[in-house]
Amino acid sequence: MNRAGRCGLWAVLALLIQFHAATGEEGGGEDGDVQTWTILGRVLTSGEDPLEGAVVSLDTPLSPFGSIVMETGPGGEFETEISIVGGKAIRLRGLLSANKAGYVAGREMLDLEANRGDVPIDIVLRTTDEEPEGITPEVLIARFAPRLKDDAAAKYPGEGSSEEFERGCEALIVKRQAVDAVPLLQTVAGRTPDCLECRLLLSLALLDAGSWTSANNRLVEVSEKNNAEAAPRPEPDILMGVLRSWRGEIKDAVASYLHALEFEPGNAFALHELGRMLVAQGNWEAADHYLEKAILAGADDGARILRAEALLELGDAAEANREMESYLEKRKLKVLPRDIRALHSRLHDRLTLLAQEQVRSVIAYSPGELLERFPALQGLEAASDQGPLEDILARTGGCVEEFFANMTNTASREQVHQERLRKDGKVTDALDQEFMYIMLADSGGEGLGIKEYRSTESGRDTTMGGLKHGFMLTSGFASVPSLFHPANRKGADFRYLGRQGIDGRETDVVAFAQKSESARAMTRFITDKGSSLILVHGLAWIDVETSRILRLSTYLLNPLPEVRLQKLSTEIRFHGIEFAGIDEPLWLPEQVGISVDWRGRLLRNHHRYSDFKIFNVESRDEKKKLTEKDEQRLKEMSAGLPADSGSEAPAEPPAEPPSELR
Q1: Nearest CA to 549 among 441, 407, 397?
Q2: CB 3.0-4.6 Å disulfide test: which of 45, 56, 491, 661 passes with 520?
């Protein structure tokens, strides 16, 4: 058995085909000689993960039995051999294609010499819902192929009038039949190797055919030749940049676009795509710089949306709004893609925040005012300077980042005590409830969200009651420390207040206040009339030894007169919870207190959490998976919608993942 036997039962055995070749167009072989080709490689996702169970087909004129079919193993591998006896030396040419349910077919063209050893071939498949990032093959062909065709015909008129060239270009540009175009343009490129434009047309055809590996190899060769030209073209590096972006190789894509701009500094397409990659990197200043250039160079309006996002992140909401308005000039917002509507919603929220008045934040309080307003600071050893602040924020931010990266699904017992109070502080009504409180790590989502919902002991979905009786619903406390996450640092001002001992631990006390122009981890306050984002300021007690946040107090920074929200304060006490199988404890809320002054009503909630356990989302209700209704509830909870309030979802997606709801 040949090497394909490694594939075992999960693969079709390699087919050793032996037959006598009576003729051959290429010399070098003798009658009786055996010519062998080993075809092997892997099928990978666009993220370079191996795909098991993909069906790989080899179609070549050298197979007298038609297609050779294989199935990939656990490592995505496949392998087969073809041998012929006698005849002149020939090359094995053919098409290698891979298919798997849920994925777009991938193809690679073969052109192999005999007896030259193993040449592994990678076939890349993307999922059916995984569109190439930024631009599609259709856009590339429409943008570059016609000009490349004209330039090739002008430089090499003999080749430009050849049948293969004309048919290949027609198949690629007009008929959009890339698989048919590849062998024709391959012949052209092989016949006229100095025609850089011909090789770029072949690269476009390979990209459109799903032959990412072959396209990459061709583009590397073309780029090397292009760099040696007296007047290099930008297209080789642009196409390489696009391919790298599809593969998620953002840093390399940036390098490709920058190299293309060395040859043509005003190329609108390269400027636009470079800006897109810089947005993906979160390099907002550079993104703004190049996207502004792209717009001036005549890039399409998509550059305005990207620049609006960059400007919003940079805190320039006014200029971001101008770009958004220019984009929307001839478009209807409600029919645009969700990500654009979400950006518009975020921008609207930011402009609203900037227009609101704010109270004086704790950052500005004098030491005397701090002690007077916050009795919890009694015993504070005031800091003499801000020298330790950066190190404290860096260490704390690292711990918060680690928490969200390592967060696992948990369940705990939640006891909730809800109160309505009179102006004098006396309780007029109270309600006690108990739940299983479940937190799911939102590892597949963007940002730092944690999905939360409640259930009864029997496993039935439920929500906090009492909304119809004038109580408030509250959740989202585990995400509040995201204020200190490195990604959110620029969204707040910080001040080091000094050292204080609490609960037997030495802590650094840090005051913070979110900034209306750049805050990210914002709280959403939801009523029956809609929702509003609010900003907070407050205090954090950070363990000197571990850099974990032990206690966090937040206060409303921007009262909302339109919904009559005057005050909102939260106090959270965190505790390190040990879980079996996890090396480090997870610092989760243990006690939470929330007080609200809304529409002249004083409301207060107390939450206590205990009996923490790892929660297997597939074991709920004795191994029953989450139902569609469960998933919808999770979405509602993460969007801040009270499930039993009767309020409707906002017309636009929520601007930020909320850290505190209701």
Answers
A1: 397
A2: 491
Query: How far is residue 171's CA from residue 308's CA, in Å, rounded to a whole number?
Result: 38
Indicate if 248 and 325 belong to the same structural domain: yes
Q: Which of the listed residues 352, 375, 408 is the one where a domain comes to its end?
A: 352
What's the one-letter identity of residue 27? G
Q: Same domain for 506 and 416?
A: yes
> Can you say whether the dihedral through the CA atoms of 613, 614, 615, 621 is positive or negative?
negative
| 86 and 163 inside one domain | no
Identify whether residues 343 and 418 lie together within a single domain.
Answer: no
Residue at 486 is within a domain: yes
| Residues recorded for the chain | 662
Please name which of 184, 154, 160, 153 lies closest in space to residue 171, comparing C-alpha atoms.
Answer: 184
Query: CATH number, domain at 216?
Result: 1.25.40.10
Write the CB contacts of 53 (distance below 8 Å, at least 6 apart in sequence). Answer: 10, 71, 72, 100
Residue 321 is predicted with a pLDDT of: 96
pLDDT for residue 407: 87
Domain count, the chain: 3
Q: How far is 591 from 589, CA to CA, in rounded Å?
A: 6
Instruction: Say how far apart CA 81 and CA 69 lie, in whole Å.
Output: 12
Is residue 79 in some structural domain? yes
Which residue type does 489 have?
R
> Domain range for residue 267?
137-352
- 280 in Cβ contact with 253 (< 8 Å): no
- Give ∠ CA 532-536-540 in degrees, rounded to 5: 150
Tokens 């924020």 -> residue: 393
Instruction: HSE, CB side, 13 Å, CA atoms: give it for residue 559.
Output: 12
Query: What pLDDT does 468 receive?
Result: 64
Q: Indicate the pLDDT class of residue 330, thresholds 50, 70 and 90.
A: confident
Displacement of CA 225 from its chain's centroid (Å): 35
Identify whether residues 445 and 531 lie together within a single domain. Answer: yes
Predicted local distance difference test score (pLDDT) of residue 130: 65
Q: CA-to-CA distance for 333 and 602, rounded, in angstroms?
A: 39
When the pLDDT of each residue in the chain is averaged and rounded to a whole number, the result is: 84
- On whether both 405 and 527 belong to a single domain, the answer is yes
Domain identity same for 576 and 556: yes
Per-range mean pLDDT, top range of 25-29, 153-157, 206-210: 153-157
C-alpha–C-alpha distance, residues 353 and 560, integer Å: 10
What is the DSSP secondary structure assignment for residue 26, as one 8-state letter?
S
HSE-CB for 31 with a 13 A CA cutoff: 2
Domain-embedded: residue 266: yes
Using one digit for the tens of pLDDT, what is the confidence trace for 62-79? Answer: 877 788 999 999 999 999
Beta-strand relationship, 121-125 and 34-45: parallel
Mean pLDDT of all residues in 259-266 = 96
**Residue 230 sits in the same domain as residue 348:** yes
Token pair, residue 454, equals 């409640």
CA R_g for the chain: 31
DSSP string, 79-125: EEEEEEESSS--EEEEEEEEE-TTB--EEEEEEEETTS----EEEEE
Measured in degrees and rounded to the nearest 5, phi and psi for residue 441 equal -65, 125
Whether residue 177 lies inside any domain: the answer is yes
Nearest to 341 by CA among 653, 657, 636, 640: 653
